[in-house]
């Protein structure tokens, strides 16, 4: 079995304390320095990671704000485009109506002018027919000028309103 010897026990304790003293004088400071350095690096890494996370969140918020503004701009452009299209449509309708009105007025003027020309032509034909008819009725030929004056007077009397 295992027996404990007091001499061996004392030398073990003495060796332990001597080794502890030597380690404390020689290795303890470098070990503690390395541990502290590692703690500092870890703390710095955590701090940088936190700063990077905050910066990423800030950047994300900025990008979301820019996206929202871009969407607002797109909506605004769409509204402006629709308004412009409506305005152009109204302008085209007004212009088409004006052109139609001008065409109608021109057509009315053409019709009135052609009506006047037709009336003048018909008056001439009526005058010729009346001259021929009166010549046959009275069996004499009056001069052409005299007949036209008589016919014109009669036509004017027909055109004047009767009271």
Give structural attributes.
rod-shaped, mainly alpha, 163 residues, single chain
Write up this protein:
With about 160 residues, the protein is mainly alpha-helical. The chain has one domain (about 45-160). It is about 90% helix and about 0% strand. It contains two helices and no strands. It has helices at about 5-140, 145-160. It is rod-shaped and about 185 Å long. The protein starts with 5 loop residues before the first helix and ends with a helix. The model has no long low-confidence stretch (mean pLDDT about 85).
What are the SSEs and their pairings?
Blueprint: H1 6-138, H2 144-159
Helix pairs in contact: 1-2
Briefly, what is this?
By secondary structure, this protein is mainly α. Helix content is 91%, strand content 0%.
Number of strands: 0
Structural class by sheet pairing and helices: mainly alpha
- Name the beta content range: under 5%
Count of discrete alpha- or pi-helical segments spanning 4 or more residues? 2
Largest sheet: none
Mean pLDDT, rounded to whole units? 87
Cα radius of gyration in angstroms: 61 Å
How far apart are the termini? Answer: 164 Å
Element string (H = helix, E = strand): HH
Q: What general outline do the C-alpha atoms trace?
A: rod-shaped
């Amino acid at each position: 079995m295992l027996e404990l010897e007091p001499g061996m026990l004392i030398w073990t304790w003495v060796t332990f304390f001597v080794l502890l003293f030597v380690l404390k004088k020689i290795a303890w400071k470098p070990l503690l320095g390395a541990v502290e350095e590692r703690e500092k690096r870890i703390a710095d890494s955590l701090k940088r990671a936190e700063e990077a996370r905050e910066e990423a969140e800030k950047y994300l918020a900025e990008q979301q704000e820019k996206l929202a503004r871009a969407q607002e701009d797109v909506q605004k452009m769409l509204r402006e485009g629709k308004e412009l299209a409506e305005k152009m449509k109204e302008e085209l309708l007004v212009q088409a109506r004006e052109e139609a009105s001008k065409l109608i007025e021109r057509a009315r003027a053409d019709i009135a002018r052609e009506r006047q020309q037709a009336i003048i032509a018909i008056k001439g034909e009526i005058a010729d027919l009346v001259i021929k008819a009166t010549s046959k009725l009275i069996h004499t030929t009056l001069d052409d000028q005299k007949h036209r004056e008589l016919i014109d007077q009669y036509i004017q009397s027909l055109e004047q309103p009767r009271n």
